[in-house]
Amino acid sequence: MSQAFVTEIERICAEVLSPLVEGDGGELWLVSVSTTAIHLHLSGMCSGCPGATLTHDHFVVPAFRVFAPTTPVRTTTGALIPGGARRMRVGSARA
Q1: Which among 24, 50, 81, 94 has most CB atoms closer than 10 A?
Q2: What are phi and psi of 26, to 5 degrees?
Q3: How many Å apart are CA 48 and CA 42, to the nearest integer?
Q4: pLDDT at 31
Q5: 3-state SS track over the chain
Q6: What is the reported pTM?
């Protein structure tokens, strides 16, 4: 897996998805990223929200499809943040 792949996933999370999630009072966490899977976690107001499935299906997955069309995306929710997760927000992507 290239650093460019990771950097682009982080940029999509920070600049595209995080503002949408934060607009609803939630927090977006990047749990893990590889060429075989991307794992995100939603917390805050998104924790356990039934709308999280819609967020995953209509915002998260389409955001990655142009750059990583075959990489599965997993989105979990809850108050407990998975170990090693990094909070994504504008400006948090690595340069």
Answers
A1: 81
A2: -105, 175
A3: 9
A4: 98
A5: CCHHHHHHHHHHHHHHHHHHHHHCCEEEEEEEECCCCEEEEEEECCCCCCCHHHHHHHHHHHHHHCCCCCCCEEEEECCCCCCCCEEECCCCCCC
A6: 0.92
**How far, in Å, are 25, 48, 50, 86 from residue 68 at the CA level?**
27, 27, 26, 20
pLDDT of 36:
93
Residue found by looking up tokens 């607009």 in the block? 23
Give every residue of the chain whose pLDDT is below 50, as ranges. none
Domains of the chain, first to last:
3-88 (3.30.300.130)
Nearest by Cα to 91 from 5, 4, 18: 18
Residue labelled with tokens 């069309």: 69
